[in-house]
Design a protein that fits this description.
The protein is of the alpha+beta class and 294 residues long. The protein has two domains: 118 residues; 156 residues, Gcn5-related N-acetyltransferase (GNAT) (Aminopeptidase, 3-Layer(aba) Sandwich). It is globular.
């Protein structure tokens, strides 16, 4: 079977997006509009036959490599890799990898469904996921004692949800937390991506208030298969009152008994991973190729 490498100007975007949408391992990160935003339209694609399978290739420029253009995983894009209508055999996966490696990639993330088919020794990355296909009471049985304690704390503090949130509200909260403040370039891309996702009707802000004060915010991508925790922030009061526990619990509760997966998006940071696991989420490993030290 023939695999071609197509430049951005050569891609049939209708066929490409149809492949991503109907792939058994679909991810929103692979959609053309998402990649256009996070790479400023600097991406190409490996295509099998008539878009039966695709592998998007984002490019960037590395300062330490004298700004050489190379394959580089974009910010806010957790998993890419090979997407296909049905699961591919190992030989076809290897064909993709052979073509991919001729391009001397710098940093690249494969999706978790590719993991079992890739024999190369790549870096293992954590991603915690919670299947929502059971009742809320059954999901809550797997909550940690700490999560239950924080939900009781939130109830005592009379927290409530709000959807009246702007990008400015979120960026302000992010920057007011020194531990999670972000650089101007990251902030600008974050704003552009949020606007694009909202324009595509694929995501929303969710917030928590105590009285009139906004104390926690999350931006959730909403697709046909997943709810993806893309960004979040909270204030000191939010942490004290269990606001983020309250927020995630409400999102989970509203989507139980569905075929959706709550995708927490990470993390390799022990404390963050512990928080995700506290909702009963299971680790679904994906692979990272990293030639940054080569």
């Amino acid at each position: 079977m023939k695999i071609r490498c197509l430049k951005h100007s050569e891609i049939n975007f209708n066929k490409y997006n149809a492949c991503i949408l109907t792939a058994y391992n679909t991810r929103i990160y692979g959609m053309s509009w998402y990649l256009n935003c996070v790479t400023n339209k600097d991406w190409e694609v490996l295509v099998l036959e008539d878009y039966y399978a695709v592998m998007p290739l984002p490019f960037g420029r590395i300062k330490r490599k004298f700004f050489k253009r190379t394959i580089l995983q974009p910010m806010y894009t957790q998993q890419l890799g090979i997407f296909s209508l049905t699961e591919l055999d190992s030989d076809t996966i290897q064909q993709f990898l052979d073509e991919f490696n001729t391009l001397k990639p710098y940093v690249y993330h494969f999706n978790s469904e590719n993991t079992a088919r890739i024999t190369s020794k790549l870096e293992l990355r954590n991603n915690y996921e919670l299947k929502l296909n059971i009742s809320y009471s059954d999901i809550q049985k797997n909550y940690s004692k700490n999560t239950i304690r924080n939900l009781k704390k939130a109830f005592k503090n009379e927290l409530f949800l709000t959807n009246e949130i702007t990008i400015e509200d979120f960026i302000r909260m992010k920057n007011n937390n020194k531990k999670h403040s972000i650089k101007k370039k990251q902030r600008e891309l974050m704003s552009q991506l949020i606007q694009q996702i909202i324009a595509q009707k694929k995501g929303n802000f969710y917030g928590v208030k105590k009285e009139k004060q906004l104390i926690a915010i999350a931006f959730i991508i909403e697709t046909e298969t997943r709810l993806i925790h893309l960004f979040s922030a909270s204030t000191a009061l939010g942490k004290q009152t269990g606001a983020t526990f309250f927020l995630f619990d409400n999102i989970i509760q509203k989507n139980t008994n569905s075929e959706l997966i709550f995708d927490f998006e990470g993390s390799m940071i022990e404390g963050v991973a512990k928080f995700f696991k506290s909702f009963g989420a299971k680790n679904n490993i994906y692979l990272k190729l990293d030639n940054s030290n080569a």
